[in-house]
Amino acid sequence: MVGIFGGLSKLRKPIVIFLLITIVAVSSLGGNASANGGPADTVPYVTGGGIHFIQKKNVTLKREDLSFVIVGDRVRINVAYTLANRGKADKVRFAFPVDYYEQEYGCAPNCDFKASDFRIVDGSQPLKVTDELIKMPVNRIIDDTYIVQKASRVYRTAISFAKNETKIIKVGYTVNAGYVDWMNPYSLIDRVGEREFNYDLAPAGYWGNGKVDKLNITFDYRDIVKKGGSLRKLTLPYGQASPEGIFKVELKQADLKSLGDLKFKYEYEDYLKSKQIASSRISPKLVSGIKASSELGSRYGASRLLDGSLSTTWAEGSKGQGIGETVTIELKKNTSLAELRVMNGYMKSKETYGNNARAKEILVESLIRYSANEDYQWVSDTKYLEDKPYDAKAVADGNLYSLSDQLAYYEGEVKTIKLTIRDTYPGTKYEDTCLSELLLLY
């Protein structure tokens, strides 16, 4: 895989993890992939070397059980081949290349190009596996992405068969799904891309007549569903998906070379953005003070805006819906901020959210300076907030991204922030306007 973590600049660079992992008969193009192994011979090492698969007609593939377990950006692949030798005792060389296609941004910090926990097991006996890294220049566009080179980590072993023996060979490893995340010039929070990988079924078609009696495929993306994500693409024409996030396919007499690549795309954007927000909140010690022009008693004081809880709120205490009421935050010297976000309304429950008023328009005034050599200056902007429906799952998950709205983006030292309510959405029971939390991000 290739990881690019560029620094902040006027033109923000992409954060890239671009992964193509594949087993190739001669060469393979396509999306991010991880794929099958087959009987192999080695092409003489000339300009980078390669793998050439050979048809092993006397060993048939009776069954292939293939599973993918997706946890965040990590994909665990486990495959079990049930192989039947129909002839005399034999020893088969087995190759499993894992190919990484490197973009122009480089490969750091993952330049070893290795899958995690790679293993090949014969029954219950681990096989001795050697590996070799082969690099070849590419310098062309693949799937709308300019690729500089292909780095192939080739895992090799030997499988011994007794006469007329049937055995199970298991291969397991973990890789990162491929993705491109772009730094956002107007927000601390990255523009998060889809996660994807491919799996090439074709190499297993070099056993026997190229067909497998029974092919079982399981995609387990329950972790993504739990994180509020979804499956965007799966190329298999058959199968059943459960609401929990398991997709199963069963095929008989499957022609593996014809099936080719499985393509899988998914997203869990809100979760990743929420996690980024959580890790970017400034220390409460950097806040020297917070006060409001009015409060509905100490239980609903301004300090509740920075207590990290969605079960508490600041409620203004003026007559009416709080038009003109203010919240002022003072920060300690040399405190730099990147972004200010607000969690609008009283989010403790659906009832408290609907019963109380929510801000519709907020004037944001900030006292900032862009360098130590400059004077502080006031900058102001008016933000209009959408009246979002109450999202019980997002509240239960603590999804800071989907529950919040951006109020300001900063590039400098911030001394004072003053928020003024300009307009509100009325509550169904009370006039009090509530804000649950302010997110000060660095």
TrEMBL record:
Listed InterPro entries: Galactose-bd-like_sf (IPR008979), NADase_transloc (IPR057561)
Domain of life of the native organism: Bacteria
Residues covered by the NAD glycohydrolase translocation F5/8 type C domain: 289-439
Name of the protein in question: NAD glycohydrolase translocation F5/8 type C domain-containing protein
Lineage of source species: Bacteria, Bacillati, Bacillota, Bacilli, Bacillales
